[in-house]
Design a protein that fits this description.
This protein is mainly beta. Helix content is 7%, strand content 41%. The strands form three sheets. A five-stranded antiparallel sheet has the order 1-9-6-11-4, with no helix packed on it. A five-stranded antiparallel sheet has the order 8-7-10-5-12. A two-stranded antiparallel sheet has the order 2-3. Strand 7 and strand 8 form a beta hairpin.
Length: 147
Amino acid sequence: MSEAPLPQNSPRYINLPRFADERGNLSFIQYPGDSPFDIKRVFYLYGMPEGSTRGAHAHKTLEEVIVVLHGSCIVKTYDGHQWQSFSLDRPDRGLYIPPLYWGELTEFAPDTVVMVLCSDLFIAEDYLSPLQEYLDYMATLQPGKSK
């Protein structure tokens, strides 16, 4: 059963190529092709204690693809109106997060390793956190509101 397509500007799963043989599996992500953006930065998360949350912010312009290389977690996204939850538990599937979506990573299995691919370098001014700052910023983008 295939997943229903989501609009291009919404968080969505990205299936990555997977090659398997007697030696094991190989997956990759590249641009153009698999990534919806040119990859400028990569970072990874590991050693998260039980009950921890990572992320808890949005970006004004940055795009991300999140891939769990080992273990599992839940990614919760929010567009200012509706929350969505995505389960990540395979290294051949990522989650695309477009700009202006709040993201939180939670419910980490022990020894989870998460890789995050970014469309730009680290720019502190691109971050929106805490949640109220994100909501205030989103309100300025609504039609009829002054910026």
